[in-house]
Amino acid sequence: MMKNVAHIPRVTISHNPTALENLPRLSEKVGCKVYIKRDDCTGLAGGGNKTRKLEYLIADAQQHGADTLVTVGGLQSNHARQTAAAAAKFGLGCELVLENVKGTPKADYYQNGNVLLDNLLGANIHHLSLEQEVEAYTGVLLEKLKAQGRKPYFIPMGGSNVMGSLGYVRCANEILQQLAEEDLHIDQIVLATGSAGTQAGLLAGLIAAKSDISVLGVAVSRSKEAQEQLVEKLLRETLTFLDIDPNLAKGKVVANGDYFGEGYGMTTPAMVKAVKRCAELEGVLLDPVYTGKAMAGFMDLCATGEIATNSHQLFIHTGGSQGLFAYREAF
């Protein structure tokens, strides 16, 4: 029998259900009906998709008797900011191992945006150069913390393991309930996909609910093939954890790797245009690393007809607008 997600330990952090809004002015421009799921409004130092994941990760850390959270990411990581906020909220120490990211605009990158907030939240930041190896550094750090008598709990990049993915299994149920309550039909869900947990969790939730809504992940850092493999692996692990046949993952994972440009966190003209267009048309602030690139891809797929005219599309806003301040020069 399928495991009931409601019975898995979870702390309450996020403001949910997050709003599901109609975007009429953007819809008119792109030629299809666009709705947006406002997961940028989950709370926790500005919100974002990681807040849902952290509800399960924090509960798991507590069950393991942890007193310190350790996680990794790029210097402007939204996940790191939300982890630092969760640590502060639950009285835990927080160690952030953050890598420099090549090719990003640097004028405000090191002190503004998420880094400013990480410091305000009291996290201890380990700023790694491009030459330093994150995994090795983090391994040494974990051993050092243990030697000091602390009890660290490691959270992978983006909170993207089975435990973190449960946050989006739950979100899938939330979306389906909202669609039913508001009598809305959706052909496809579109989102930015990076460390895989959000897309894998959503798909697991939809599979569990026997929903046939497709999910398109617009990749922010790797090719279609590499991203689909990463998501499918985590989807299979999540389905197995939920006591659902992992073979139901077959054919469900769809990613597009055409819109991340030269690399993760590196700006593209299309991203800048998409961010500006959503701000000017709908008063919605996207971010330069994830949702801006996903929206740029979405707009282009609408323009080329790959996303059908008059179809109904739900874009998940996974947050990150705090990063705009670090990318000021790009705008």
Verbal overview:
The strands form 2 sheets. A 6-stranded mixed sheet has the order 1-2-10-7-8-9, sandwiched between helices. It has 10 helices and 10 strands. The protein starts with 19 loop residues before the first strand and ends in a 14-residue tail after the last strand. It is of the alpha/beta class and 331 residues long. The radius of gyration is 19 Å and the shape is globular. It has helices at 24-30, 50-63, 78-89, 113-120, 134-147, 162-181, 197-208, 224-241, 269-282, 291-303, and strands at 20-22, 33-38, 68-74, 93-99, 124-128, 152-155, 188-193, 214-219, 254-256, 312-317. The model has no long low-confidence stretch (mean pLDDT 97). Helices cover 40% and strands 16% of the residues. α6 (162-181) crosses α7 (197-208) and α9 (269-282) packs across α10.
**Rg calculated over all Cα atoms:** 19 Å
- Quote the beta fraction: 15-25%
Mean pLDDT: 97
Class per helix and strand makeup: alpha/beta
Number of helices: 10
Let me know the number of strands. 10
Which sheet architecture does the biggest sheet show?
Answer: 6 strands, mixed
Determine the fraction of residues in helical runs and give it as a percent range. Answer: 25-40%
Distance between the termini: 51 Å
Residue windows where pLDDT falls under 50 for at least 5 positions: none
Element order, helices and strands? EHEHEHEHEHEHEHEHEHHE
